[in-house]
User: Fold this.
Amino acid sequence: MGIRQRHRPDRPRVLGDYRARRASGATVPPAPAPARTLAEEAAVVLSLSLLASAVFAIISLATAPVRGVTVAAASQEPVLAQQLAQLVFGLAPVWLVVYLVRRNGEGVSAIGLSWDRPREDILRGVALFIVVGLGGIAVYLGAVAAGVNRFVVPAPPLGHWWTVPVIFLNAAVAALLEETIVVGYLITRLRQLHWTPLAAVGASALLRACYHLYQGWGGFLGNLAMGALFGVVFVRTRRTWPLVVAHFLLDVGAALAYIAFREHLPGFG
Assistant:
């Protein structure tokens, strides 16, 4: 007569069931919690990160002129320790999202952050960088020339030994923060809340455009288009890393171009 083994689950059954369903190949991971809980979670994450940035950007556009104004897209703090502290704590919302999806049993793959296809992700990211970079330069210069965009300083203070390293760190933090929160996390949660792909991508792109309104209307329209493209790529591939790579290259390229050409190109100084 066999010995009857006592069932001792290592984790709540709901998480095991969730992972089984996720392994079945569904395009959108099933919701790990009731809709009200997911909506509240998303509101908290966005309020701690880029939704707050969007509100302040809207206020900036509404209360200050656009033509002839210079704004900074990177911290102008001249102390390296302050720069590094801002970068570290700037990643806190990403840490929060990673913690939440792991705690829910979803894992980072649910928001497209599995590092299991690096070559494919990097190549896609470079291709996106080329497409968005060429269009972005035209939109930015045209908007500045038309007086509907502010001059943007995309680099930290110049003249320090750490200026270029911080450019790369700034770009990495901004890319991880924005693409993880606004695309991988937000679109996933909205789809789990039964938003259509079009509506989820539209909301993601609109949020991205709004927190760039401090730059002016050119920044708004350029980032709206970029956000729509990135959202479509995510919905079709369920991969966030190509977007992170593209965003990183865009920010590094903008900062280095500012340093090299700020005295020669209109709008770069």
